[in-house]
Amino acid sequence: MTAKPAKSPQRRLEDSAALLAAVRSETARIVIGQERVIDLALTALLSGGHALLVGVPGLAKTLLAETLAHVLGLSMNRVQCTPDLMPADILGSEVLDQDTHGKRAFRFIEGPVFAQLLMADEINRASPRTQSALLQAMQEKEISVGGKPRALPMPFHVLATQNPIEHEGTYPLPEAQLDRFLMQIDVDYPDESAERVMVLATTGNQPQKSKAILNAKTLMDVQALVRDMPMGESVVDAILKLVRGLRPEAAASPIVRDYVTWGPGPRGSQGLMLAVRARALLDGRSAPSVEDVCALALPVLKHRMALNYKARAEGIEAEDVVNSLTSDL
């Protein structure tokens, strides 16, 4: 039996772009009025990264995670974060079992982290100790319990949600945790026309159900294609100019020197390199452009930098600083 000939890079791109168009359409059919958020979340997943969804309650953040898991064909577990949640409640734990012959041995019971898509709902309600339990999982795609490393299912992604308006009983995410998220995606209210469609579609007797478009293997193939996409020197130069320009110790921009305490590290450059490729593929293009860098600069970089007290006193936000640099790219 003869093997099938390998697809050309152009054919791989066309096939992947067609599948992703179907994924976008199917997700938008269920999550109504959040096309920008859907595109950013898909960009993060195609890049192999994690995303932090920030928005007030009721904006379909949980529904988005559940729909993406189903449409992409991924196994999913959800953790509702609370102050009393312990690391073992996420990672799992070892229990002592005894067999019929009286022999005792430890058996590991997997926690919800053993899924291809983990949704951490209201992650800032978990204590710092529990938040840190995800650090190794998010970076190395494995965990250590009882001194033994345990690989997580592949692909592995975390979609976490955060409520920006309720601060009582919350623990701000530490910088090391934030840096593991490829993107911070701000979820806003839908416009009036989208909200009209949404309330009519979701308050009837017919439940809205999504259908699977991809599976885990196909998603990993698309993620590999993202890493294979060529990068023009102008795009690489724009990424480095932007990320390095946000570091106050070497910045040429007065707004960065005056208002930024510390800027994005190399993970910011790496994340932006992958994200612009994924965005290009999502649009059916064979290579990213500087426009992709400008479009993704805010969600990829703004949570990786800190502003000083002078910025807060004068009402300067991270968005203002990043936008001042992208306008010069």
Topology-level CATH name of the largest domain: Rossmann fold
Which segments are poorly predicted (pLDDT under 50) over 5 or more consecutive residues?
A: none
Q: Tell me what portion of residues adopts beta-strand conformation.
A: 15-25%
Computed structural class: alpha/beta
Secondary structure topology:
Blueprint: H1 9-30, H2 35-46, E1 51-54, H3 61-71, E2 76-80, H4 87-91, E3 92-98, E4 104-110, E5 117-121, H5 128-140, E6 142-145, E7 148-151, E8 157-162, H6 175-179, E9 183-186, H7 192-202, H8 216-228, H9 233-245, H10 254-259, E10 260-262, H11 266-282, H12 290-301, E11 306-307, H13 309-313, H14 318-326
Parallel strand pairs: 1-8, 1-9, 2-5, 5-8
Antiparallel strand pairs: 3-4, 6-7, 10-11
Q: What's this model, at a glance?
A:
This protein has 14 helices and eleven strands. The protein has helices at residues 9-30, 35-46, 61-71, 87-91, 128-140, 175-179, 192-202, 216-228, 233-245, 254-259, 266-282, 290-301, 309-313, 318-326; strands at residues 51-54, 76-80, 92-98, 104-110, 117-121, 142-145, 148-151, 157-162, 183-186, 260-262, 306-307.
Structural features, described:
The N and C termini lie far apart (53 Å). The protein folds into two domains: 170 residues, Rossmann fold, CATH 3.40.50.300; 101 residues, Helicase, Ruva Protein, domain 3. It is an alpha/beta fold and 329 residues long. The protein has 14 helices and eleven strands. The strands form four sheets. The protein has a five-stranded parallel sheet with strand order 2-5-8-1-9. It has a two-stranded antiparallel ribbon with strand order 3-4. A hairpin with a 5-residue loop joins strand 3 and strand 4. Helix 2 packs across helix 11, helix 9 packs parallel to helix 12 and helix 11 crosses helix 12. The longest helix is centred in the N-terminal third of the chain and has 22 residues.
